[in-house]
Amino acid sequence: MELRQWLDRGVGAFEAWTRSYEEYAAHPAMAVDAEACAAAFDELTGRLHGSYPFFHPCYAGQMLKPPHPVAVAGYLAAMLVNSNNHALDGGPATSVMEEEAVGQLAAMAGLETHLGHLTSSGTLANLEALFVARESRPGLSVAVSAEGHYTHARMCHLLGMRVHEVAVDDRGRMDVPALERLLATGDVGTVVATTGTTALGAVDPVHRIVPLARQYGARVHVDAAYGGFFALLAGDPLTEESTGQALRAMAQCDSVVIDPHKHGLQPYGCGAVLFADPAVTRFYRHDSPYTYFTSARPHLGEISLECSRSGAAAAALWLTLRLLPLTRQGLGAVLAAGRRAAVRWAGLLDGSPHLDLYQPPELDIVTYHPHTEPAALSRVDRASQEVMRRGMEAKEHPVFLSVARVGAQAFADRHKDVVADLDHAHILRSVLMKPESEPYLERLHHRVEELARGAA
Ligand SMILES: *Cc1c(COP(=O)(O)O)cnc(C)c1O
Questions:
Q1: Where exactly are the structural domains of the chain?
Q2: Does 259 contact ligand 1 (Cβ within 6 A)?
Q3: Of 65, 68, 152, 62, which is closest to residue 365 (Cα–Cα)?
Q4: Is-above-0.85 flag for pTM?
Q5: Class of domain 331-453 (CATH, top level)
Q6: Domain 77-323 of CATH type 3.40.50.720
Q7: d(C-alpha 265, C-alpha 271), whole Å
Q8: For ligand 1, what atom is nearest to the CA of residue 224?
Q9: Per-residue pLDDT tens for 44-54?
């Protein structure tokens, strides 16, 4: 797809639409000097080159990649209109696109009924789910795994809810017996499970958590901000059986958060929250003296905590899902490439004399560290940070990795014979979320091995 051609088409469609209204005069106050504009624009694009190359497979660090060209074109076409999906007054066309796209996300999660909407981020989406959790189970607390996203504790603080941290097993997944002990205290109203933790890509066993939570009358919220789209691979041989079961069990949960700006090929500003019970709409009830007038249909702002929200984000997602639908062959093929790359890299790391695999990848996040002799946390820590630094600073063939901090006990759970001379260590972490990582993998591995050889 030619990005320029579709951007041009978007601008053309917008201009044609504006010409369908009566002609009006432009105001001189809006005019900018062409030369000054060119200079400022050059400065802008020059400064943007100070970014890391998120588009390139040599960037194998954080959960970052550019949006799909289709999403960019759809976003631009709608951004020119600049609709606001808070109310049908502001986004009559894009609100309907949002409902359609959200319906597809709900179907992917397996929800039979749903109430949901897009948000500006996963954090906001989780805040809404926790708000509904608080209203549904007043006075009770939240249980989230030690590997859950840090924003849960922050959002619970904001909502005045107590949080219990649940221990994890030796692959970073919520420990079910530990959860049961906590549920038995009667203090937990909501369990937050994560299908795809941000550091390790670990998938909590939702299929085991749900029946247990139900037994104790607790709700289950799934934070699938990063991992939700892997539901498309739930039945695939690329996915471990228990991981597939956990992803499919999202269908039985009370709420699910999925970030299209993570694995849905969207630009930032696109999270989503889904509730299984449409009746939770009662917790959002409010009135506004200046909106909600153009339609008796429910407005998205009536079921969300945010007010103004980008209609373009909905349009971009809607267009993307038209072309890469939420099927194994559609968007699933994009995720499968990253997953295959992660599995293959794990094999290469396992066989490498210079690198060790930290734990087998469950989705597309690979964690590893330089092999050190003697094996000690302080050496692993130093060498990992050194590899990241040298990779980024290399004049030729730079490679961009990220690090994650892991505790000494967590490390010992996976690698018994390492000397715990620190209470935590940094290890290397690569999110292989671009399908381009698959054909590039051998080069990436070779480069990282080379760096590790020099750093260990
Ligand atoms: C990224 C992420 C979040 C936060 O989402 P934002 O869109 O960055 O606000 C929450 N939970 C998980 C599991 C994530 O990976």
A1: 77-323, 331-453
A2: yes
A3: 62
A4: yes
A5: alpha beta
A6: no
A7: 12
A8: 13
A9: 999 999 999 99
